Amino acid sequence: MATTRTLGSGSYRTASPGAQPLLHDGATGGVLSRSPSNDPNSAAQMDRQVDCAPPNENDDVQAHLYPLPYGSGQKIMAAMFGFFLQGLFSSGIGAIIPKLEDTYGLTDATVSFIFICSPLGYFVAANLNSVIHVRCGQRGIATIGPICQIVFASIAATEPPFPIFLAAAVIGGFGSGLIEAAWCAWSAGMGKDANRIQGYMHGAFSMGCSLGPMIVGSLISSGKPWRNWYALLSIFTLLELLTSMFAFRHENAAAYHRGLSKLDDDTSGMVSPSDVKSLFRYPISWICGAFLLAYVGIETSITGWIVVYMSRSRHIPLVFAGLFSSLFNIGMGVGRLALGVLTDRLGVRRALDLYLLLAFLFQAAFTIVRLPPLNAALMAMLGVVLGPMFPSCITMLVLHLPRSIHVHGVASVALLGQLGGAVMPFAQGFLAGKVGIKTYPYIILVQLATLMAICRCFPKRL
Length: 462
Prior knowledge:
By secondary structure, the protein is mainly alpha-helical. It has 16 helices and 4 strands. The chain is about 70% helix and about 5% strand.
């Protein structure tokens, strides 16, 4: 039987003998109907159209994709812009920490609570993401997520009391959690185009992370208050709301249900989206969760504290210290866009082993050598080899999970990553408050060694 599978707007087709072909709705990624014609010539013509996909030995491991449906370009651009803003929000926090401490009279340990707020929002998003998909479709995500980010940016732009700032950050984290999980699950389900689209999205995220510290540094150096940064973000998030709603305007609840519908009589291997417990019956869920727990902790620790470390321990002016965070994120963007071919050639497992070994060596050299130009180059190279980690992990997860729990799977694993992104920077801030910021590079080395050990748990065939 010829069957069309769909996740979001990405679909692919597999063929089995003895059944009528299906008609594909390229606009929504859904399936219109079975071919009603009993004409052998018509059926043969349809079979030639449907069965021309490359052979697929394991339908749950690898999907083959026809040319992207109409409207996918708009969605890719909207998702890239959303991830670009995610990068601005993420990197901006580390750059304004010194100003937050001055404004509110905070210590390193107290200001570190800001790293807890976003994961709290992600936790709520992980539990509601599937519900929103079922009731509102991807269009609901495209509306609710940016609105939450607008609320956070607008409140922060008023320079409120610090507890209100933290509460607004939770709302912003909820919106970011919805957007990240939804667009990652959508793009990872695009078959053979998944790695390319994931690379575009995460490359846009790294670009946002690169520009964030530069913009904040220029605002601060020109004497403008830090709240202007969030006023600028509120304008960007309004544009994100408009572009996302337009790109996903057809992806309502009905389109999402069409995508999940099993059109043949065999329902084996399908898991209900509401069956949350089923996710962690798959070992890959635990491995990817642990991997992102450690990886996002490293990434957030670097972007969150490198500016403070370089200004206090290496005695570099604040405006130049921000460049180290930007160089790290520029390197991540380059790695995500340029290392995809090498990753495919080596295999994910071997490539990640190589990248992590290089990352450990770069960080060790950064810790020992105290020459700012060389430190800047090492930080950029560290970003390059760490860049492919997140998208490769998400792609592996989606390829090994049933499609009905893709969204919940990505949301849950991303939540574990955000947990690492909260605990590790918070621990950095706590230690900085107790013994000083000089512990920063050594903690990063320990985290990298832990990530190398977790990577050994991935299946060797990946």
